Amino acid sequence: MTMKKIAVVCLFCLINFVCFAKKVEEPDWFKNYKSVYPVSEFIAMKGTGNSGELAKADAAAQIARYFVSNVVVNTSASSEMTSDGTNVTKNQRILTETEITSELSVVGMEYTVPFYNKPEKKWYAVAFINRADAWFQFKPKIDGLKNEFMGFYKKAQSESDSFAKVSFYRSAVKVGDAFLEKLEYGRLISPNDEEKYASDRELVSEIPSLLALELKNLTVNVSVSGDYGDIIATAVKKVLSENGFVVGNSGNYLASVIVESNVSGSEPLVIMPSVEIKVESKDGKPVCAYSTAAKEKTPSYSLDKAQKKAFPLLAEKILQEMKF
Q: pLDDT tier at 76 (50, 70, 90 boundaries)?
């Protein structure tokens, strides 16, 4: 090899060495990601990991945890109606990181190109959400729940029957909780835009009080025939109480309960009891109708003993099946 060729090869090797040895510049966001993604415009978090994908996942998880720690959600459970007919109990629900991540997928989370920090031997990346874009994507979900809530609220306001009003208010409470949850996301995404829903928040907060007032009108008198030892009557009254009615000797509603033993044969006799229940307002407007029967025949040498054995099973069916 001539000296000229050797010189060319050495020059080529030197150029490659310089190129590969050149230090990779740190991106601006690595030094100070909040200056690149200001809080006023973005929700951003920097993550790290042993690979670029893990760094992105860590950054996304940090944003999810930010929402978990800031979204406070009060939702109504089935226990919201108390048996005394005067109170509404609300239970707190804890959001999971998975739920938050699912919500955030709607608004379009973005990522920087991962950067490998050689001295630390770690990858870094920033996950970020543009507040304006996210609000544009998320607002329809908020408005959808608002419209659903307002629908139930307006129906309750237009009703004259207390039971119907309570039913619509109950639905308004549940949908209102979901609406408030979405507003909490919205508040974190774009506080100024969320503030426009302040009057709606206030209305949602008033529904439990309106519901409690209406529950006081759900007074019901229970009339029972064909029972044994008040077994069926007790079950019916319990169901009514659990649905917000105040059971008494008089009321705005009447629950008519007819129990039939359906006796056949003798020595031993056999019964297969059934029950028919109707709940109506004082002016005859139907509220609830329910009927059921025992699944099996009960034999005995006396009617009392047969009823004592069979009626508790029928009462259990009422407790499990009777719905409003």
A: very low
